[in-house]
Amino acid sequence: MKIAIVTFQGFNELDSFIAAGMLNRMQPHGWEACITSPSEQITSMNGVTVRAQQPLEFANQADVVLFGSGVMTRDFANDPELLARLQLNPARQLIGAQCSGTLLMARLGLIDKLPACTDQRTKPWVEQAGIEVLDAPFHASGNLATAGGCLSAQYLASWVMLKRSSETATREALDYVVPVGEKASYTNKLLDTVRPFISG
Predict the structure, then answer these.
(1) DSSP secondary-structure letter at 134?
(2) For a tag site, which of 61, 106, 153, 187 has the least CB within 10 Å?
(3) What pTM value is reported for the model?
(4) Cα(114)–Cα(126) distance, rounded to whole angstroms?
């Protein structure tokens, strides 16, 4: 499983790093989540600079593509040359986004008729794109998912794991990251949130 965590300049660290960290707990099963960007180096909204592991075009061949958010996402969503570099296919890929990343999915024409989740700041922009915004942390339909709020990265990651692996493997991966003393309740909360969207 090749997973592209699409990350742009001004990115939100929580979005990219939580998803990447959780999904890489599936490495024993052959999974690899990579920070994927149009730039060789990217600096977060709080000044953290990291090196991209894969170029943006990696997303086109990945099994899973997740868009994080950031302070410059609206600019990227209005850049036709950049968007043209992304040729995604929800028939064979899982594609998800959170917060302002949802705007990118909208501009790519991936969620034209689907309701979506995002953060309050991005909500008006997504609605201007003709998308119904839900007051919910997570929603998915088929191979497309959106989430709202920085910590909703955990729902996107859990959805990907449960969608593409067994519940046993998913629970084993989550066991490492969920809070000690709350492992059972926290894991059940994650899975109960995403499970209704697995078969659809």
Answers:
(1) P
(2) 61
(3) 0.96
(4) 12
